[in-house]
Amino acid sequence: MKYLAEMTFAEVREMGEDAVVILPVGAIEAHGPHLPLQTDVIIARAMAAAGARALEASGFRDVVIAPPLQWTSAGFAKGFAGTLSLSPATVTAILVDAALSLHRAGFAHIVLANSHLDPAHTASLHEGVRMAREKDGVVVTFPDITRTPWALRLTAEFKSGACHAGQFETSIVMAERPDLVRESIRVTLEPNPASLSQAIRDGKKTFEEAGGPSAYFGFPQGASDAEGRETIATLGAILADALVAARTPGRGE
Ligand SMILES: [Zn+2]
Question: How far is the CA of 28 from the centre of ligand 1 (A)?
Fold first, then answer.
């Protein structure tokens, strides 16, 4: 596994015909009083690295991780200080251009490692995937973890929809960047079982409307680095399985 930004042009030029690039996609967005704004970027990078290891184990020789896309649409969190939110149309345009640029750089396969689940954001990615294929003939594999079959492999809290800065995400940050978890605050946070996915279906547009006045949902107190490591491995397996499925004729995107 290599990081594109750390490679030289000559090393990129020497990649094989089956080279894979993974694009981590996150956000700079409020994640409760206990996690950093870049939580989704940390999760996306962890998913990308675990996915790269899984792909290498299944025989891919050149697996490269691109610089993360972290300027995106984050409307649900826009009422909280520090959240950065672009319009969905801008995000789609960036993804289409990024995919074309990665394709021209010589990558045969482009896979998204997305961990930011704001509905406007995921819709903008699906639209970008569609446009890249229609406009430029560039295929991007996007295993959307909010959808089946992928969501079924994740934790009970994730599937309940109470999955923003709760046990699921906090565990991953504890595994990856424990230095960034405000532990003395985390252990005081009351459970918030309100389902964000149900609120989205009910037409709510912000964390406050959805019942998350402190920008977290779920059970931060239940988080552990052990669960985080397990979830990261699952996310990596999802990424690898999605790419293998997409390369098999008649399956995947
Ligand atoms: Zn998140």
Answer: 9
